[in-house]
Amino acid sequence: MRAQPKASHFIDGRYVESKAGQSFKSIYPATGETIATLNSADEETINAAVESAVAGQKIWAATSPVERGRVLRKAADLLRERNRELSEIETLDTGKPLQETLVADAASGAECLEYYGGLAATLTGEHIDLGGSFALTKREPLGVCVGIGAWNYPIQIACWKAAPALVCGNAMVFKPSEVTPLNALKLAEVLIEAGLPAGVFNVVQGFGDVGAQLVSHPDVAKVSLTGSVPTGAKVAALAGEHLKKTTLELGGKSPLIIFEDADIENAVSAAINANFYSTGQICSNGTRVFVHTAIKDAFLARLSERTGNAVLGDPMNETTSVGPLVSKPQLDKVLSYMSLGQEEGARLVCGGGAASVPNFPDGLFVQPTVFADVEDTMRIACEEIFGPVMCVLDFDDEADVVSRANATSFGLAAGVFTKDIQRAYRVTDQLQAGTCWINTYNLTPVEMPFGGYKKSGIGRENGHAGIEYYSQVKSIYVEMDGVESAF
Ligand code: NAD
């Protein structure tokens, strides 16, 4: 299987190959086959991408908001028309099953473009009465924004960054993860076809050093990163050195609290979604599942039974519900945590190791894994694993579980299951997390802002809040009287 793009980068409206630079491969995680080989951008390519974005941004910022919105909505339509092709590429690049990519990746990217396309013409400033004189505010673009993506939701992340950036009149240079480089290029093609001027959305490929060069480029105004906390710290430090505006969407170890009055079947569904969807490779996953002792046995019995229904197999087969992990390093990391949980004394309820899948001897498959009797201090309960490893912890008391849920440096998301609406609100009010779900988990509609408390991030993506992070407010004071001065 091949999904080789025409060239590695997309700059100024066309595919571009870099002359030098380190080459790297996109590997299909189900088979280990190389599906594409690309070049990491050299300095000349990075500079060309930024230069073209500077020129494109001037044209785009002068385009009326109604027209900008039309381009984004057209791009959304094109993504939908090409959903199957894009989903197949996403499955090859990430290993996520087609059952998921057909509904969750390009589809959510299209919703984001449509949403911000719809907002375009509504972005207005204020008139501020100063008693005769007055002030105006207007929302202006930042200039050239850099987007840097993680590998778990490649086209969704590209759209979540590009759509709010472009609607505000910015240009974007996007660097996908070196693990999943393909669909950002397809998004660039689609945006050009939808009428975006050349240079307004460019894609350059490469590793962290390319990301860092983009962040420190003097013509870049802002960086938005989706990635791990350690990378976030590096990007924030570099951006701070150059005083660049920054949005960081980072990792988590989120709590999912299931009270004794919860609907067990729904709570089990949520725990499955919160740990095994995308083979557990989701930043907001509820990997610390706190279950009230009164329902613990019933919950674990049903969870174990239903986890047994997971279909591991050919990601291209739409009946497959769990695909391989994205890469060999990720496989090694997840397997090491599966062993660590057993060494730390957690009780293995199901899974616990690699999975062998017929016809896919080289696939990076692991078993969906549940540990019970997990203690707060165990490393499996403290560190982000980013694989299908669920930790179930016991609790009896509301105040105690809230304080344990908050006892982490992460703060991306949290969930509460209870039929008592007052308790649900009381608990979510106290949870230190950017997104809280009541009686569901991991739904991230584009209308709802998304982002982290504490080390899980800075800033928000999606919703009206997203606009704040890709625009700046200019105040204009209009004097209607004379000017007084001291001398
Ligand atoms: P990562 O931090 O290794 O890499 C993320 C991106 O940063 C890649 O494109 C990488 O090339 C780039 N990068 C690495 N070093 C850099 C540097 N010094 N300067 C600039 N760029 C650099 O993350 P990953 O392994 O690709 O993704 C998994 C992580 O992403 C997990 O921690 C997960 O929780 C997080 N994530 C967060 C969200 C969110 O919205 N909060 C969404 C998806 C994934």
From TrEMBL:
Enzyme class: oxidoreductase
Claim: GTP-binding is one of the keywords in the record: no
UniProt xrefs under PANTHER family: ALDEHYDE DEHYDROGENASE-RELATED
CDD domains: ALDH_F9_TMBADH (cd07090)
EC numbers on record: 1.2.1.8
Protein residues bound to NAD(+): 149-151, 175-178, 251, 283, 384
Catalytic activity line of the entry: betaine aldehyde + NAD(+) + H2O = glycine betaine + NADH + 2 H(+)
Residue ranges occupied by any Aldehyde dehydrogenase domain in the UniProt entry: 15-476
Keywords: Metal-binding, NAD, NADP, Oxidation, Oxidoreductase, Potassium
Species per Swiss-Prot/TrEMBL record: Roseibium algae
UniProt pathway: Amine and polyamine biosynthesis; betaine biosynthesis via choline pathway; betaine from betaine aldehyde: step 1/1
Native organism taxonomy: Bacteria, Pseudomonadati, Pseudomonadota, Alphaproteobacteria, Hyphomicrobiales
GO MF entries: betaine-aldehyde dehydrogenase (NAD+) activity
Needed co-factor(s): K(+)
Keyword Ribosomal protein: no
Binding residues for K(+) 1: 26-27, 93
Active-site residue list: 161, 249, 283, 461
Domain of life: Bacteria
Function as written in the Swiss-Prot or TrEMBL entry: Involved in the biosynthesis of the osmoprotectant glycine betaine. Catalyzes the irreversible oxidation of betaine aldehyde to the corresponding acid.
Family designation: Belongs to the aldehyde dehydrogenase family.
Cysteine sulfenic acid (-SOH): residues bearing it: 283
Classification via InterPro entries: Ald_DH/histidinol_DH, Ald_DH_C, Ald_DH_CS_CYS, Ald_DH_CS_GLU, Ald_DH_N, Aldehyde_DH_dom, BADH
The protein, known as: Betaine aldehyde dehydrogenase
CC cofactor note: Binds 2 potassium ions per subunit.
Positions of K(+) 2 binding: 243, 454, 457
